[in-house]
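Record 1 of the preview.
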Amino acid sequence: MTLSEMLRAAVERAPDTAAVITERERVTFGELWTRVEERAAQIASITEPGARVAVVAENCTEYVVLYYAIPHAGRILVPLNHRLHPEEWRATLERSSTTVLCGERALLERCDTPVDHVIAFDQAPPSPAFVSFNALSVGGLKGCPQRLV
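->
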């Protein structure tokens, strides 16, 4: 059974049960599944099947979403420990041939990454160099910068 299948089974059994609880929000299994499908479609639109997608973040809901969404999209999750030095992230990204790095903006800004696209999932002030992850269309990155928020 895959991660997606396990999550889908939880959704079918108890869609209104809390799946993630943080200080800021409570997310049910049904809501989590909706977010996972949305992020999976976005990731699939900017990567090829089997592509490696890394995530660096502290504990947060978006990390959980991507933990399920990346494999659901047919991509390979490369989790990065946020406590490591940015040079260790870079080495892991290079060795794994990662093409997309997602994470908290504060962590991403510490690393000069060797990837095609960087997506920060924090809400940030508007910038001409960034677009919102939420604004990333399923159609891909047409006209979008490589560093995405």
